[in-house]
Amino acid sequence: MIATDMLVDEAIRATVRSIALPRTIISVRIDEMSHLPMLIGSRHEAKVTVQAISVNTGEPIARGTFKTSIFLLDGDTADRDLAEKIADRISGEFRLDGQRRPTMATALFP
After folding, report:
1. Which of 14, 39, 86, 94 has minimal CB crowding within 10 Å?
2. Long-range contacts, 26-32 (Cβ 8 Å, 24+)
3. If we measure between CA atoms, which residue out of 45, 71, 52 comes closest to residue 8?
4. What is the per-residue pLDDT for 110?
5. How confident is the model at residue 102 (pLDDT cuts 50, 70, 90)?
6. Which one-letter DSSP state was computed for residue 4?
7. Strand ranges (DSSP E) for the chain?
8. pLDDT digits (tens, 9 = 90+) for 33-51
9. CA angle, corner 100, sides to 110 and 89, nearest 5?
10. For 78-103, what is the mean pLDDT?
11. Is the backbone of residue 88 left (phi > 0), alpha (psi -120 to 50) or beta?
């Protein structure tokens, strides 16, 4: 899922904050992936773990897990579509412009 990595990196680079915060690394791990064929199309799911790790100490600061899924009529683009949904969720959680109070980012930066 290199596409997920590229999309998350792009979202992070687009985020700007006026107040400096402790430096962290965001680790994204796709724990499980599955697809369920249906009468028409298929459902694709992923369980994702995101960790914020301190650059200074290497210790985890926050951790969150979520599941996401998509329904597709044509499974040829399933990996890319699921990667986009994962990246959107992560970039939404870590948006630092104040438009949303996400759960994981709130744990990191109260």
Report:
1. 39
2. 26/50, 26/51, 26/52, 26/53, 26/90, 26/94, 27/51, 27/52, 27/53, 28/4, 28/86, 28/90, 30/1, 30/4, 30/86, 31/65
3. 52
4. 44
5. low
6. H
7. 24-37, 42-54, 60-72
8. 898 888 888 899 999 998 8
9. 100
10. 73
11. alpha
